[in-house]
Amino acid sequence: MSIYWLLNKKPVTVFADFIRNASKKTGGSTKNTNCKVRPKHRGWKVQDGHIVPAGKILATQRTTRFHPGLNVGFGRNGTLFAMEAGKVIVTCEKFDPNWDHTWVQRNYGGRTNQNIFKKYYNVIPEPQHNRFKLIDEI
If 0-12 CB within 10 Å is exposed, 13-18 middle and 19+ buried, where does residue 80 land? Predict the structure, then answer.
């Protein structure tokens, strides 16, 4: 104890005498060389000839490998999905791009005189039943 405590001139706490510094110093940044990144599982989800319900995801992609065809929607992240229930048909069709567009010139610049083929997803809806009877014509 100190003499200041006995004289009551200046209040001193007991903790003022015991100051402890950090025992671990900062180590700086480290390279995460062993980080485990989970795979995204992009690609075909439904193959040619399968029956799908409406809203089913047909393919996921980062770049446009597959293009939407009949009754197929194109999501914001490139996902192709069925807009109607039916049978999936994948076709390889001739692609006729707009050569004036800068994106087309950048990607297909050296292929102006060549045929370019792309894969298209199509969903053919199931035929409707013919169980109705004609009662009256207008």
Answer: buried
CA 127 to chain centroid: 33
DSSP 34: T
Copy the structure tokens of residue 25: 């110093």
pLDDT, one tens digit per residue, over 38-58 is: 888 999 999 999 999 999 999
Task: Render pLDDT for 79-107 as a digit per residue (tens, 0 to 9).
Answer: 999 999 999 999 999 988 888 888 778 87
Which of 49, 55, 54, 58 minimizes the C-alpha distance to 80?
58
Is residue 44 within 8 A of residue 60, CB to CB? The reply is no
Number of Cα atoms under 13 Å in the Cβ half of residue 118:
14
pTM: 0.62
SS3 helix, strand, coil % of the chain, rounded to 5?
10, 25, 65
Distances (CA, A) of 51 to 21, 47, 70, 129: 69, 9, 15, 17
